[in-house]
Amino acid sequence: MTVAVTTGLLVAGAVYLFLQREMLRVILGFVLLGHAGNLVLMAAGGTSRRGEPFGTPGDPSQIADPLPQAFVLTAIVIAFSITIFMLVLSVTGTRDDSTTDDEEVSA
Hints:
Helices cover 66% and strands 0% of the residues. The chain is elongated and about 80 Å long. It has one domain (2-91). It is mainly α.
């Protein structure tokens, strides 16, 4: 229940930040959405009702599935690289949000 509420709050914050005009807020919304997705993947692994993914317990049904944890590690790396790419685009981009050409406006 706690993971679901936390995921919901992260998604709500991400949607709020996506609706802003500033590029930095959109990037922060993307980071929040990535964290929410990671929480969903971790919850899918059943770590709350199972033990550690590695080790030698007596009952193999008590071992957590390591695949969602591998997915989360991969998602962290991908989200970090996309975040850096978006930050570079925001720094090198222009400041105006104009979609019209300057020559069209003067004509």
